């Protein structure tokens, strides 16, 4: 079975072709750093417009790199959320059009579940396991009991780690994205300069 995966939840247009559930044949990503860097953060309207401009070319390249053609696909999997609504709509509508035109099924995939299960492309995991999701807009810890069975153990109450890096980087006048620039500076920093409190999950934790 050949599955086309399509991701447009934020500022990257990505498409991948997966064979039989665990063999990655291609993975093509178009980044938008050049578009958003002068604003110091992601501009949702510009992100959506870039997806519109790039999505078909990214899909075409992914299918070609997989040594396949569109008519060889058996299923389309597309991010349905969470994410920027304008960006998500580009991916969803593209997937719907391909599904209709190729007469193959389409399924929506939760963005966070995709992060959580991506490890299966590298190695076989045994349930249950604990997963830490640290992406641009999310910093969550889950207990995965089985496919589709997840319990949220804790998450940040304000900004996610990625958002914090970008905001601090902008305040310090560092280039976007802030994460790599801050990491580079931190290599020569003092890890004991500030004492940070432990994360609060519940009373007594």
How would you describe this protein?
- This protein has 205 residues and is of the alpha/beta class.
- The chain folds into 2 domains: 2-112, Nucleotidyltransferase, domain 5 (2-Layer Sandwich); 125-186, Nucleotidyltransferase, domain 5.
- Helices cover 35% and strands 27% of the residues.
- A hairpin with a 2-residue loop joins strand 6 (129-135) and strand 7.
- Helix 5 (161-171) crosses helix 6.
- The model has no long low-confidence stretch (mean pLDDT 92).
Topology:
Elements: E1 2-7, E2 13-19, E3 23-30, H1 33-36, H2 44-65, E4 75-81, H3 85-102, E5 106-110, H4 111-117, E6 129-135, E7 138-146, E8 149-155, H5 161-171, H6 178-186
Parallel strand pairs: 1-4, 4-5
Antiparallel strand pairs: 1-2, 2-3, 6-7, 7-8
Structure keywords:
8 strands; alpha/beta; Nucleotidyltransferase, domain 5; 2 domains; metal ion binding; 6 helices; five-stranded mixed sheet; three-stranded antiparallel sheet; Peptidase_M22_CS; 205 residues; transferase
SSE series: EEEHHEHEHEEEHH
Low-confidence stretches: none
User: How is the main sheet built?
Assistant: 5 strands, mixed
Corresponding CATH superfamily of the largest domain:
ATPase, nucleotide binding domain
> What number is the mean pLDDT?
92
**Any idea of the CATH class of the largest domain?**
Alpha Beta
- Overall domain count: 2
Approximate helicity band: 25-40%
Shape: globular
Q: Which class best fits the helix and strand makeup?
A: alpha/beta
The overall strand count is 8
Strand order of the largest sheet: 3-2-1-4-5
Task: Please tell me how large the radius of gyration is.
Answer: 19 Å
Discrete helix count: 6
* Head-to-tail CA distance between termini: 47 Å
Q: DSSP strand (E) fraction?
A: 25-35%
CATH architecture term of the largest domain: 2-Layer Sandwich
Looking at CATH, which topology of the largest domain would you report? Nucleotidyltransferase, domain 5
